[in-house]
Amino acid sequence: MNIESEFLHPEMETLSRAEIEKLQLKRLQETVKHCMNSPFYKKRFEEIGLKPEDITSLEDIKKIPFTTKQDLRDTYPFGMASVPLRECVRLHSSSGTTGNPTVILHTQKDLDEWANAVARCLWMVGLRPDDVFQNSSGYGMFTGGLGFQYGAERLGMLTVPAAAGNSLRQIKFFTDFGTTAVHAVPSYVTRLYEVMQQQGIDPRKDTKLKVLAIGAEPHSEEQRKRIEDMMGVKAYNSFGMSEMCGPGVAFECKEQNGLHFWEDYYIVEIVDPETLEPVPDGEIGELVLTTLNREAMPLLRYRTRDLTRVLGKTCLCGRNHIRLDRMRGRSDDMMVLRGVNIFPIQIEKILMQYPELGSNYLITLTTDDNNDNMTVEVELAENSNETEQIQKLTKNITRALKDEILLTPFVKLVAKGSLPVSEGKAVRVVDKRKVYL
Ligand code: ADP
Ligand code: ZN
Predict the structure, then answer these.
(1) Could you report the per-residue pLDDT of 395-420, keeping only the tens digit for each?
(2) d(CA 72, CA 173)
(3) What DSSP designation does 199 have?
(4) Cβ of 344 less than 6 Å from ligand 1
(5) Whole-model pTM?
(6) I want to staple 240 with a disulfide (CB 3.0 to 4.6 A). Which of 59, 102, 249, 384 is the partner?
(7) How far apart are the CA of 241 and the centre of ligand 1, in A?
């Protein structure tokens, strides 16, 4: 560990494109071979007559069928494992609100590699062993907890496993322990700031904070800027998902020009969700990921349902690992209202442009007199009795939203602190529409 270096793993982070692709092919071939130990993949390969030696170029990845969340559910809990259970040391399971939950198994080597990936991300944004890292995200099955914990320890920082919630205690930890870096979901950072304000604590003067890692839920560039202005520090986008271990899959570098996906760990494809054909670079499609160094449970061409696009393959930071745009949300976050496709993030982008508004908002879809409607409730930054001004503001916001989503929503400006706050991922949409079968 050379603390003068911009790179934690220079041998991987500074590979040229050609070197990345060479390494990927080698690791893909090893992974496909290893997948023959998984009852699920063995059967799948046999059904289509695919043999590991058929993979002779990266292009050949197209011969491999996609893996879906449904496959994970169908093989719940251990049907996809590529090693005997005896070799596994941990599992993470998703909540499974619809159908069976899903399980991801890890060997000790998988956990080590995961910690390395998270440490690499944190190093990239300037964190070093002298830093004090507070993890204000949920622990337990939520991978943002243990994922960041082990990654921050691997880097050698003093870690504060605060977990989510209890904002007063979080803030006391900031000041008492000299916390310099925090990981939290973006909606929780804005909550923490509100409580700091109530306590008369100015993050710029009264804390040593310098870096925020925000992620686990979709958020707009406007939301990020707002968080940076509030807290007076840089906020870096962190992307991950349980199926790919958790955090550490992709992270922004100091250039803040997209998420670097670590291509020594994953093969990235962007496909049209309908035709499943690759889309040209720059066009939005579904992110598909293949793990390249997982032991317990490799996943091949996993359809993440996250929508994004390629921004570039080089970067001023010196890394040639692919850069993707911030996620628009998952294909299943998309609301279809009167035939129009809308993502919550489009609404957030508009709302965050108004300094008069706070950061908490809620979108409710209802059916009234056989018409589907959208109501956008958003908190005011400061409560006000100026009815006329509020009416004018409401009108302006409604017009701006209409320009963005092509439908006119009902906009309600509500009192500061009146909308529900979640300690985990924010709930932005409530769909109360009648379903006609
Ligand atoms: P769950 O599947 O229960 O939501 P995960 O923690 O595995 O639990 O969630 C992963 C998902 O969270 C991703 O597929 C993506 O939709 C979303 N996500 C994670 N990080 C980000 C981010 N930085 N920006 C936008 N969405 C994100
Ligand atoms: Zn970069």
Answers:
(1) 999 999 999 999 999 999 999 999 99
(2) 39
(3) T
(4) no
(5) 0.92
(6) 249
(7) 5
